[in-house]
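Tutorial handout. Part one gives the primary structure; part two gives the three-dimensional structure as tokens.
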Amino acid sequence: MPAADQPVAADVSTSQHVDAFLSAYPEQVKETASAARQLLKDLLPGVAETVDKSAKLLGYSYGPGYKGLLFTLIMSQTGVKLGIFRGAELPDPKHLMAGAGKVHRHVQLRSVDDLERPGLNQLLKAALSAWRKRNRAKAE
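Part two.
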């Protein structure tokens, strides 16, 4: 089995690994995290999902390190934060993001219904587009 902070292939063992990680959280948090995972997997075909137990998060990336990172799901006993790498650089006309850091932002998810908030899909697509532009520019 891979180390807790290493990418694991999207297969049955990955689901079991994530399920074991999520088992420490209340049912509503597990449901919200599962729905958010599906949303990200639908948006990001072939994305690598990593489990970092010590940081209490799931990471979604297309490569190693911060260069490949797009999103995180940060767990707590009361909800899930959908972390957006370099979210501070993105427009947020619906004011969905929170956080005061210079780089990262997050969207608080208290329930599955929060994934239906107006503007969330557009925000996630904007983050993906910005990631693609950054990585395209570095490759040139």
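Part three, for discussion. The radius of gyration is 14 Å. Helices lie at 12-22, 27-43, 65-68, 120-139.
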